[in-house]
Specification:
By secondary structure, the protein is α+β, with helices and mostly antiparallel strands. It is built from 1 helix and 13 strands. The strands form 3 sheets. Strands 3, 5, 6, 8, 9 and 11 form a 6-stranded antiparallel β-sheet that branches. Strands 4-1-13-7-10 form a 5-stranded antiparallel β-sheet, with no helix packed on it. Strands 2-12 form a two-stranded antiparallel sheet. The chain has 2 domains: 67 residues; 138 residues, Jelly Rolls (Sandwich). It is 31% helix and 39% strand. It is found in: Secreted. This is Cerebellin 20. Pfam families: C1q. Keywords: Secreted, Signal.
């Protein structure tokens, strides 16, 4: 009888142990399922972020490809193709450069002599002025003014009666707003002489946009 009671106790304890183990196993499986769900969620988020990043990169590349060329602006012009002198005049005159080496964006207008900034940004401009008095001892005046919206930003002035030929160059960087006008003017009494060598030039380009 004692042996039977012990066997029953052992069997009952064994059943309790199995039940406890099953419960712990179920809890472990639930925990594992939660972890797997969280991992899957994180993976999906990372995949979505990666896809979004690639999409942004691709969009930027497409934008640069199709619209990058539209953001370029550069020109380089000379006064004339023939031996000819412009001036002198009694009043200030705008210099209209007629020979175009480059006019990317068509922002320089040969008819008006104006460069119109297509967008806000930092621009670089260079002007070279050359004059020829014809003979030594004759007064020479190679002078120009670079203006932005009619305001003087730089100038060249070579006036003397010792050199038959003289020249000057100015290079500068300016910040412009879209629609600003840039042009070269010649003061009264000055004159520029050019030839097929293209001695008098006006060059400008957009260094980088600010908007």
């Amino acid at each position: 009888y004692c042996h039977l009671i012990c066997s029953f106790c052992c069997f009952h304890y064994f059943n309790l142990t199995i039940t406890e183990l099953n419960r712990e196993l179920e809890e472990a499986q639930e925990t594992l399922s939660k972890i797997q769900g969280e991992v899957s969620c994180q993976f999906l988020l990372l995949s979505a972020c990666s896809f979004q990043s690639h999409s942004i990169t691709l969009s930027h590349a497409v934008f640069s490809l199709y619209f990058g060329a539209a953001s370029r602006s550069a020109f380089s012009v000379a006064l004339t193709d023939s031996s000819w002198c412009f001036g002198p005049f009694r009043t200030e005159m705008i210099v209209k450069y007629q020979v175009s080496f480059l006019n990317l964006g068509n922002d320089y207008n040969k008819s008006t002599g104006n460069f119109v900034a297509p967008r806000s940004g930092v621009y670089v401009f260079a002007v070279t002025a050359v004059s020829d008095s014809g003979s030594p001892g004759t007064p020479l005046a190679a002078c120009v003014i670079l203006r932005v919206n009619n305001l003087e930003v730089a100038s060249i002035s070579e006036k003397n009666d010792q050199d038959q030929e003289d020249s000057g160059t100015v290079v500068l960087t300016v910040q412009l707003n879209a629609g600003d006008h840039v042009a070269v003017y010649m003061p009264p009494g000055c004159f520029l002489c050019d030839s097929k060598q293209h001695l008098n030039t006006f060059t400008g380009f957009l260094l980088y946009s600010t908007k």
